[in-house]
Amino acid sequence: MCGIVGYNGKNQAAAILIDSLKRLEYRGYDSAGIAVFDTNVVEVYKEKGRIVDLEKTLPSISGTVGIGHTRWATHGRPNKVNAHPHTSGNIAVVHNGIIENYQQLKEKLSRTGYEFVSDTDTEALAHLINHYYKDNLIDAVISALKDIRGSYAIAAICGSELVAARKDSPLVIGIGEGENFIASDIPAILKYTRKIIFLDDLEVASITPDGVFFFDTCKSPIEKKINLIEWNIEAAEKSGYEHFMLKEIHEQPRALHETFAGRISELEGNISFEGSNLTESQIKDISRISIIACGTSYNAGFLGKYLFEQLAGVHVDIEIASEFRYAHSSPGSLVIVITQSGETADTLAALREAKSSGCRTLAITNVMGSTVTREVDNVIYTRSGPEIGVAATKTFISQLGVLYLLALYFGKIRGKISSDQMKRMLVAMKMLPAQITRILNNKEKILKFADTFSSSSDFFFIGRTLNYPIALEGALKLKEISYIHAEGYAAGELKHGPLALITKNTPVVAIATKGLTYDKVVNNIKEIKARDAPVLAIADEKDSEIEKYVDAVIRIPTTEDILSPVLSTVVVQLLSYYIAKARNCPIDQPRNLAKSVTVE
Ligand code: M6R
């Protein structure tokens, strides 16, 4: 995810900006840049690749105010032109987040004579600030922000003025002696100061060497509290979380928000994608879809199968990538590959195989510029931000987000869902990030169950229909990070064999949300309880019946039945995490596993 730094003070800015940017490298990025105000002009230096590559190109730069950025591409390829800072006249801007209405702003600003050189949404912001600039930067920034829809953390300079603002993207201000700092995250500036102010949404800050002044978007002054940071650098990189996996689980509301940003218009009941050139008639003509993926991405695709079949009325074959190329069946007329990294060798091999049979291809991936994006016909990005923990969590949630959008989009074009249904679904989808936050804020019961059963040697996860893929994902998460043998099963299948393994020593997690198969899942739970196994149910918060049948219940907020797998996922992730933690496992780097599997 992109990183922002800024400096205004008594020292030379360039070295501090580069040093601070390096401390944000763990967030992942594909280009970097700085802008420093030197006497009369703003000098900008940027490069594709690593910060050390940028550093090698830097001349000696003088200037005591500047901004810096590491970019993780979302709009436009990872290259030098798209790297930040972006400039307009003497104004330079760095930005994290997504400006949803940048296309409209771009058209408007182009008509008034502004020239665009990059493919980024941020460049529109730089021109917009310039457009409003009269005699001071803070007024221009405040005016520009009023025209923007979307999420942002920004830092801008013009002359010796440095201004920061945020909405839905993190930004902190560091308070020093005769110098002050901006950063996306505390570790970037912890070396220089431990006095940190957290900027809140819709707040703007003017940073001078001698003080920082905070305002709301009407320019009324705001008082802010200084926090004294006591973490060390390593803990701070994880923002205080013990593991990247836990941090990434907590980033899911934001990841899903980004997945949806600019793609949903719930009032009109519309969905749009920036990277897909599938035409309406091509979508209407799809006779069968093949979804191909590995591991967690496969589990997301498996849920996708149910979604496309229910919402768009099109049959889907879900294929394990490493098996697909040896199958003798022909792929559907549309092949969707799902890969977080975009580099998984099995998935790429399957994609090439599918392409050779002439079908259309579409990739759902998280990494811009990855191999898969260069080989498919259409790309849809999950926009989860970089994921460092080997166990996929937030990228899975975002993959589900894209699959819901795509299935609804296809369903509308194919005449399978009404405009009212569409609007209802989109409204419910927009509530998911806040509902995930509620689960994250209420995890005591999950912790308790995890502690009680962390020494078990076998676990079962069960669910029917839409919850079956989540049972598979729960079992995959648990086995990869806790080394406990776990099986995900379609609840109705237990009695056809695995029930023989059920004893008082095999905890079962039953996903029992309301819906078509609820009563049948309850029957399956009774079969399990008759064999004395402890059962944890994941159930709707309004379900008053379920606790009669199980040992513990984790409640999830009420949503549309078809969306509840998103919320159940968060429970199985946390459960796996806390069990692995209780067993003292190396959660972020499980044995034998790699984040990106580039061998077949
Ligand atoms: O990058 P991809 O999504 O293609 O990776 C696929 C699998 O290797 C990956 O999902 C793996 O199963 C994860 N470690 C699961 O947490």
In short:
By secondary structure, the chain is an alpha/beta fold. The chain folds into three domains: 3-235, Glutamine Phosphoribosylpyrophosphate, subunit 1, domain 1 (4-Layer Sandwich); 238-438, Rossmann fold; 442-595, Rossmann fold. It has 19 helices and 27 strands.
Estimate the strand proportion: 15-25%
Overall average residue pLDDT: 93
Measured as a percent range, the helix fraction is 25-40%
CATH class label of the largest domain: Alpha Beta
Task: Report how far apart the termini are.
Answer: 28 Å
Uncertain ranges: none
Identify the strand order in the major beta sheet. 3-2-4-1-10-9-11-15
* CATH-assigned fold name of the largest domain: Glutamine Phosphoribosylpyrophosphate, subunit 1, domain 1
What does this structure look like?
- This protein has 600 residues and is α/β, with parallel strands linked by helices.
- Helix content is 35%, strand content 23%.
- The protein contains 19 helices and 27 strands.
- The strands form five sheets. It has an eight-stranded antiparallel β-sheet, with helices on one face. Strands 5-6-7-8-12-13-14 form a seven-stranded antiparallel β-sheet.
- It starts with a strand and ends in an 18-residue tail after the last helix.
- Residues 294-297, 339-341, 344, 347, 390-392, 480, 593, 596-597 line the site of 5-amino-5-deoxy-1-O-phosphono-D-mannitol.
